[in-house]
Amino acid sequence: MQATPTKRETFKAVPAVYLVLLKGTKVLLSKRANTGYEDGNYSLVAGHVEAGESLRAGLAREGSEEIGLQLSEDAIEHALTMYRFASSSNPPERLDVFFVVKNWQGEPENKEPDKCAELAWFDIHKLPANIIPYIKHALKQIIFGNSFCEFGFNMPIIKEITVEETLPLRSAVLRDGKPFDQCRFAEDGQRGSFHLGYFDDEQLVGVASFYEIGFDNIDEPGIQLRGMAVDNHYQGKGIGKALVQFAEQKIESNQSITHIWCNARKIAYKFYESQGFGFVSEEFEIDEVGPHRKMIKTLKQ
Ligand SMILES: CC(C)(COP(=O)(O)OP(=O)(O)OC[C@H]1O[C@@H](n2cnc3c(N)ncnc32)[C@H](O)[C@@H]1OP(=O)(O)O)[C@@H](O)C(=O)NCCC(=O)NCCS
């Protein structure tokens, strides 16, 4: 008997509407509070559309609920549609639709002080530093006259960071919460060293450091990998692998480097093996940390 084919689930993004209330070149921003998302940062008056509700009706409802304005649907002009990538901490994707309103009656009032710390007018060309990045991007698109954009897809989530930025994760993941100063390595400031961070939204969730130090008995230049740490809640999601691959691509642009090596902790042997590293020592003990083996990977020439 043939199995009944199951119906493929249609992917659903979440639609949201945003009010770009304009007074000349000033735009009304709302500072988020107590919501668990981007609190302390500026956004626009906005909200999710309800089932059966048109986008403009949704916007008029949000305008009334959040700032007490009765917006006429005729005064609500579509300005921009943004399709926005969702991070793993904030799925799924969003379909954000921005509407400009230039004519309205009355003054906006903060009707939801539990969720909005303040309403404030800003020059659209001089937005505050603590504005949510995709809102800033949307407003820029509107100034440029663009009516469609996408945000967050293929954005670099790995980038170079400073030693200081590595310390909280080194401390939490590798050093049992020891003070940051005890999580520094003597080689941290060494010439040619670099540190990589993996970001989920704005949050740094993985770090790794690289030093121009060749392996013991190899004459050619090499790189030592140290301080590889992924936040406990993010382990096993491909972040360690992405950091190693990013570093290898960066290192490979320097033709003379032939290998990358590390003192691998026992719990990380399998991880390094999966990334093409092989063992080049017996097990040895590092004080207060535990058993390790030296592992090395030869880079393509
Ligand atoms: C070790 C560590 C850096 C790996 O990073 P991660 O983001 O958790 O690992 P990833 O999800 O990128 O895993 C990549 C690959 O390694 C494998 N892997 C990772 N940890 C593994 C483990 N403990 N056992 C078996 N396989 C493992 C994964 O299955 C995956 O395989 P795939 O590429 O075939 O899918 C991270 O788990 C960590 O910070 N651990 C605690 C601190 C630590 O030990 N640091 C290393 C010091 S030397």
Percent helix, as a range, is 10-25%
Major sheet summary line? 8 strands, mixed
Low-pLDDT stretches: none
Shape category: elongated
What count of helical segments does DSSP give?
A: 5
Tell me what portion of residues adopts beta-strand conformation. Answer: 25-35%
The overall average pLDDT, rounded, is 92
What radius of gyration results from the CA coordinates?
A: 25 Å
- Give a count of the beta strands, DSSP E runs of length 2 or more: 16
Bound molecules: coenzyme A
For the termini, the CA-CA separation is: 56 Å
3D architecture notes:
The protein is of the alpha+beta class. It has helices spanning 55-67, 133-144, 163-174, 239-252, 269-274; strands at 14-23, 26-32, 42-43, 45-48, 77-84, 94-101, 116-123, 148-151, 158-161, 194-200, 203-211, 222-230, 259-265, 278-279, 284-286, 290-298. The strands form 2 sheets. Strands 1, 2, 3, 4, 5, 6, 7 and 8 form an 8-stranded mixed β-sheet that branches. The longest helix has 14 residues, at 239-252. It is elongated. It starts with 13 loop residues before the first strand and ends with a strand. The protein binds coenzyme A. Coenzyme A binds at residues 173-174, 228-230, 235-241, 262, 264-265, 267-268, 270-271, 274.
